[in-house]
Amino acid sequence: MLGFLKEPVVIPAEINVNLVALTVMGLISRLWGLCYPRAVVFDEVYYGQFVSLYMKRIFFVDDSGPPFGHMLLALGGYLGGFDGNFLWNRIGAEYTLNVPVWSLRLLPALAGALCVPLAYQILVELHFSHCAALGAALLILLENSLITQSRFMLLESILIFFILLAVLSYLKFYNLQKHSSFSASWWFWLLLTGVSCSCAVGVKYMGLFTYMLLLAIAGLHFWHMIGDQSLSNVSLLCHFLARGLALLLIPVVIYLSFFYVHLALLYRSGPHDQIMTSAFQASLEGGLARITQGQPLEVAYGSQITLRNMLGKPMQCWLHSHTNTYPIRYENGRGSSHQQQVTCYPFKDVNNWWIVKDPGMQQLVVSNPPRPIRHGHIVQLVHGITTRYLNTHDVAAPLSPHSQEVSCYIDYNISMPAQNLWRVEIVNRESDTDVWKTIMSEVRFVHVNTSAVLKASGLIGASLPEWGYRQLEVVGEKLSKGFHQSSVWNVEEHRYGKSQEQKEREVELHSPTQMDMSKNLSFMAKFTELQWKILTLKNEDTEHKYSSSALDWVTMDTNIAYWLHPTSGAQIHLLGNVVTWASANAAALVYTCLSLWYLIRRRRKIYDIPEDAWQLWVSAGAVCGGGWAVNYLPFFLMEKTLFLYHYLPALTFQILLIPVVLQHLGDHLCRSVLLKSMFSALIVAWFSSVYLVYCTFSPVTYGQPALTGTELKDLRWKESWNILIRKQ
């Protein structure tokens, strides 16, 4: 029974020494001296804030992209025991002892290190020689810009890792297609492709470019499969469903899971939640939730409410009035109604409270039982403190003369009758009998007499003059002008009014709510709102000292100073290996010219290279050249502040193209032994220059050793490079 224990259990394994050696060298190049400098380096000042917020479970919104990359950085902080207590306010600030610098920088460094063996495997899966694959990996290994970007708490190295992993996984899946369809390894690589794509998109939306490229390649491959007569209809359907599951459905589910974890972790209110809707804010612990807890759900006649504008631009604001009136005449000579001002005020204030009144009754309290207001009901809105009625009429608004002025009506005993009836329209209603609900309902107020809609002014950022205390304009705009978010309001704070007397009501308006009510947004509702904010919320782009245009990147006419030692000449710059960048551009140009030449010749039925070599050439171009194009060209269409590091994903693909072109030239254009020998010697010399440039610029890649002013001047190979030289 136990005879098998007499012999040792042996598991034979094949070890690719090249792969192991490349992985070790990648780890050494990225992990060496990772804690240096122990100071905030460039965009660590930006991402570090989010890591601290994760540690403290405080909600935030980052308009630069999805949360997965931030969560990975936060994971490093969590593993290092970071408590989130550090003030990320300036580049170069020394880290305190509680900041685990090594842990925070570890995951980006590991991702950057693993890009080296991934590059090797991609070339192997493209059916190029191991020598070409080794060359691609070494070029990635010795690329100064990739080293710099991967050694700090930044996201580009993580993005590139997932992009390369997605490409490798798809190539492995495709190569298994002919002989091992639906095998365990076939499924593994197909599923890993989808997972890697979703992770790339989850780190930065730039990952979407490579995802689209792989979907296009997969679609083209499946199109070729349709023409394969050896495959049955059932088999084709299974292949189609498998690809749809792995490349479409699973990435969507994983992408949603990033937000699920993000929202589960960040359950506390913070400074960023003010840009979210009232319903979202109320779902967070603290902040608005403390104010709104205990509010009645259904708005009824007699309810006391505050109305928040749903647009939230240029800032959140609430419908507001005060005792001051519009000036009889404006600066431009136009006249006003001289009625009480109505504005949108960006701060919580007792003058933001309004009472919803039944036009047919005089009472300003909620009856027992309450009479809820439904879609289409007519109401009057009474300002809580001044008891004047919200009104609009055919008088031009102060800043928007084509819209109607909104005021609180003052009876001057002149021929200007009150026009204070408003129809409640619930925008997000499920039926025409829906009840107006606190926080949840998005409503418009349509003026009964003029059909104008109550809205925050369309003049985004425009505020009233001194007489209006620089508050935001509120106007009545005709319905025919269409729907806009600025005409939608929601009840944020709400109580059932109990006091008919004005003095008692003022006291009531100053007191907190007391009734119990609990409500939670569903995950999908929170995801939809957060996703929309990420896509539409744009910080004001300002010119940065190190910003650049996409045209500057190809020739590396720009650099970025990441860190400068406060006393010595030690500094870190985002600078690439000049020889590698120039070679990548040359490889792209040679590939394009040769491809056009081959296409023209093939059109004339002249075949310069064998068909299998042509297919190899085309597939490599689709992956490497296509990867460069989709990760670079879209930046010409983007209206945002751009930096050199945005080019690094495209550069990675362009570097992979170098050994592709070199092997092709050696195999098909160098026909004689002499030419092959000369070509090999040139490659050795060229690669030696790559290594020499890497060593030359390593002091500003790693930040050590410190260089003298003369040595720094010698590194300024281009006039456009901003090398910092301290005055002696």
From TrEMBL:
Q: Where in the cell is it found?
A: Endoplasmic reticulum membrane
- Which GO terms fall under molecular function for this chain's record? dolichyl-phosphate-mannose-protein mannosyltransferase activity
Topology relative to the lipid bilayer, per the entry, is: Multi-pass membrane protein
Fetch the SUPFAM superfamilies from UniProt. MIR domain
InterPro entries from the UniProt entry: ArnT-like_N, MIR_dom_sf, MIR_motif, PMT-like, PMT_4TMC
The protein's matches in PROSITE patterns, at most eight in alphabetical order, are given as:
MIR
Q: Would you tell me the Gene Ontology cellular component terms? A: endoplasmic reticulum membrane
PANTHER family reported in the protein's UniProt record: DOLICHYL-PHOSPHATE-MANNOSE--PROTEIN MANNOSYLTRANSFERASE, PROTEIN O-MANNOSYL-TRANSFERASE 1
- Does the record carry Transmembrane as a key word? yes
The membrane-spanning stretches of this chain are: 68-88, 100-120, 126-142, 154-174, 186-203, 208-226, 246-267, 578-600, 612-630, 642-662, 674-694
The UniProt similarity line reads: Belongs to the glycosyltransferase 39 family.
Q: Where is it mostly found?
A: endoplasmic reticulum
- What is the official name of this protein in its record? Protein O-mannosyl-transferase 1
